[in-house]
Every structure is written in C-alpha cells, then in structure tokens.
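forwarding from the other thread:

> can someone predict this with zinc ion?

sure thing
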Amino acid sequence: MKVDDSRSDDYFFRELKQSYHGLCRFWKKFSIWRYDHCIFVAAEKFLAHEITPKGVGLADPNHPEYRFKPVERDPPVTPREFRSRFYSCYQGGKKHAHRWRQCRHQSLGSADALERIPKRDRMVVEESEKREDFWGLEAVECISFLMFAIYQFLFLIAPFVFWALWLTLWGHNGDLQNASVPLLTAIGLWSLFRFTVFNK
Ligand SMILES: [Zn+2]
C-alpha cells in the first residue's frame, strides 16, 4: 500500500479495507473467517515472491527506511481500534443511511493513528532475489458467528425436516428411533466437520 504523510486516518483505513478485500478471492465470501484486526509483524523475504513472517515486531524508530511517531503504548494501534476502524463507514459526505445500525464514521480527518504506524520509504520488490527484512501489518481473522450459524442451519435443516415429516405426514407416528437416525448422523458428522475444518 502506498501512503504519504498528507493522508488522513480515514484514507489509510479505507485503503487498508480495500486492499484486504482485494487480496481475498471469490470463495472468501463464503468463508466463516472474517477480518478481526491487524498486528504489527516483522517479516523476511528470502527469495522472489517468498515471504515468511517472523513474529510480532515493530521497526526501530531510528531505522533509516521507516518513519513514524513512536509512542509508549505497545502496540501503537490496538486490535480494538483496528477492528473498529475497519468496520467504520467511509461514505464521506454522500447522503446515505444504514438499515441495521447507526453510521459509524469516526476519524474526523485526523491522522493520529496513521502517524503511529511505521511506513517504509520504499516498496518491497517481490520479484527481486535479494534477501531483506521488513516490518508491516498482518491481518488476523476470527470466526463469524453469523456465517457459522448459516452453515449449521444449512447442514441440519434437511435431516430435521425429514424427522418432522417422518413423524407426521409420512404416517410413522411415535417412531422416534427411525426418525432420529439421519438427524443424529448429521449432528455427529457436523461435529466432526466443525472440529477438523474450523479449527485452524
Ligand atoms: Zn455511514
């Protein structure tokens, strides 16, 4: 992401949001994982297009390639602030309304958060074979309760409908044992699927 000193927090966090969505592929829309916050990390490029994270870290304030306003607090921008700004509204001055919530516009033109984030004066040339260390932001994701609930509903709705139809319209009144077989199987498979796929 390119950003210069004249930019505001609004600009930066809007660009951050667009960059995150730009990096996500189409299938990501159906994922239960959603952006939660960013962390400050160190990273190393060891070959062309090969980058490995090296854990949480912040550039040295005296590093010649980085500029930012050092603050006592670590991290300089908290996970809560990253999350709040990511899900803020960036409609600008355009007239608009939200259906389910109030407008969450927060930055008011300041650059206080952006000043604290280390910005490198040059891009990392990914095509280059040269080894180099750098610092940046890494997105951390969390499970969306809504998406999880939707998948759970879709997985269990068919055996539940079967259970209801078996006992009512299909004339097996009182045959709870046979009616419950698909539902209990689905619950068992769902638990296994949830454990192996959703625990990353
Ligand atoms: Zn709004």
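The radius of gyration is 24 Å. thats all i got for now
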